[in-house]
Specification:
Helices cover 28% and strands 35% of the residues. With 275 residues, the protein is α/β, with parallel strands linked by helices. The protein folds into 3 domains: 4-84 and 172-181, Periplasmic binding protein-like II (D-Maltodextrin-Binding Protein, domain 2), CATH 3.40.190; 91-163, D-Maltodextrin-Binding Protein, domain 2; 193-268, Alpha-Beta Plaits.
Length: 275
């Protein structure tokens, strides 16, 4: 049975590349122009699950996506790391000297800052996706405008690469997660990573208690992120990713974490991906 997967962006976007590289080239993808619409597609059962970017090694976390996962009770069941390569593409026959504007997603501009500092004559126009501007340039035959796309996307739309790999850092990588609705989270033999969310009392040592407990269980905490909670002033939720050994009693650890935190949520237990 062909899987139905919601992605942010269209064919040729980084989300689409994750599906093709790590899941299946035969999967049927639903293009969503925002992460909100991606989540709606998942919870309304239009798709089997969604693939969502959660953080970038240079630009940092996408904080709003953590909130979307938690507020809509989605479960993380897998993760993928995609090396990000940005190529400047345009209609065939053009040179970089012909270009006046660049259309792309804000995140792509942030990850190519050095290149655009060196080409300050180019007008940067934000769009909701990376691949969509490339598609529009090809369909409407727009001259003097370029898009920023991943490897392999220029060929999809019949465009030329004017400049390849313009990203600031060759070690640029984005972490994506697979999000599902109402998934019963049960540890399995291959799972070795967990994502949790919790809040803490405003009192000395509350965070230390959590960290001390994780140390007691020999947990490798790979990420901790604090995010303001929307329904109260100056209160924060903590999102933690942690790697655990096979012999760890995760159910026991989770019960202990619940006892020293507020509004605890287990967001997912899954197999860590290679970076």
């Amino acid at each position: 049975m062909t899987e139905r997967i919601a992605i942010q962006g269209i064919t040729g976007s980084n989300h689409h590349k994750v599906v093709c590289d790590f899941i299946s080239k035969q999967a049927k993808t639903k293009a969503c122009m925002s992460f909100n619409s991606l989540v709606k597609a998942v919870i309304s059962k239009e798709v089997d699950y969604g693939i969502m970017a959660i953080e970038n090694s240079i630009a940092g976390s996408i904080l709003s996506n953590y909130t979307l996962i938690s507020e809509h009770n989605l479960s993380i069941s897998a993760e993928y790391y995609l090396d990000i390569k940005h190529n400047l593409v345009a209609l065939k026959g053009q040179n970089l000297e012909d270009i006046k504007s660049v259309n792309s997603h804000q995140m792509a501009f942030l990850q190519c800052g050095k290149f655009f500092n060196q080409h300050s004559n180019l007008k940067l126009v934000e769009d909701v996706d990376t691949a969509l501007p490339a598609q529009i340039i090809a369909e409407k035959q727009i001259h003097h405008t370029v898009a920023i796309v991943p490897d392999g996307t220029a060929e999809l739309f019949g465009l030329d690469i004017l400049k390849s790999h313009i990203q600031d850092n060759d070690f640029n990588s984005t972490r994506f997660v697979k999000v599902e609705r109402n998934l019963k989270i049960i540890p399995n033999q291959s799972a070795d990573k967990a994502s949790i969310r919790f809040e803490l009392a405003h009192e000395p040592g509350s965070l230390f208690k959590v960290l001390a407990l994780l140390q007691e269980y020999n947990i490798n905490m790979t990420k901790i992120q604090s995010i303001p909670t929307p329904l109260s002033k100056w209160n924060y939720a903590f999102y933690v990713d942690m790697i655990f050994l096979p012999e760890i009693d995760m159910e026991n650890l989770i019960e202990k974490l619940k006892s020293i935190t507020h509004h605890f949520k287990l967001l997912g237990i899954y197999k860590q991906a290679q970076k």
